[in-house]
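Lab notebook, design round three. We kept the backbone fixed and only want residue identities now. Task for the bench partner: fill in a sequence for the structure below.
Input structure tokens:
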């Protein structure tokens, strides 16, 4: 399928836990092997056609799958596990210290882009055309 995309936003995130979570108390870089002992909270992919690729999930570790980032955040804040969260969702918690970044080797903070995508080989109506024009304008304004 032929698609095109436009930039929508930048996003950064990384592994976090509450300050009293045992790995957060460590003053050293933790290995992935050490983190297998602790429950990693993961947002499950509900799409039917997604690949089996997982991002920042420790293979062979203990996992708790949830449906959304709000639930994941609440479980992490309750101290029942750790996980990667987008920083814009936990900005206040990082500032007030109720969540802290974890120092895990080979599981560093990440960054990326959110893009709006559309198929270009299918005709669209005037509303979709205008909406796409707005996304393109927004992209030019917010890319910097």
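Proposed sequence:
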């Amino acid at each position: 399928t032929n698609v095109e995309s436009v930039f929508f936003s930048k996003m950064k995130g990384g592994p976090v836990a509450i300050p009293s979570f045992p790995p957060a108390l460590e003053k050293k870089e933790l290995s992935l092997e050490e983190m297998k002992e602790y429950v990693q909270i993961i947002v499950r992919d509900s799409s039917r056609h997604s690949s089996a690729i997982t991002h920042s999930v420790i293979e062979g570790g203990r996992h708790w799958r949830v449906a959304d980032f709000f639930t994941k955040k609440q479980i992490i804040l309750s101290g029942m596990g750790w996980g990667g969260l987008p920083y814009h969702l936990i900005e206040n918690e990082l500032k007030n210290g109720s969540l802290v970044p974890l120092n895990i080797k080979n599981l560093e903070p990440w960054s990326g882009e959110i893009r709006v995508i559309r198929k270009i080989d299918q005709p669209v109506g005037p509303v979709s055309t205008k909406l796409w024009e707005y996304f393109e304008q927004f992209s030019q304004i917010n890319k910097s």
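Keep this in mind before ordering anything: The chain has five helices and six strands.
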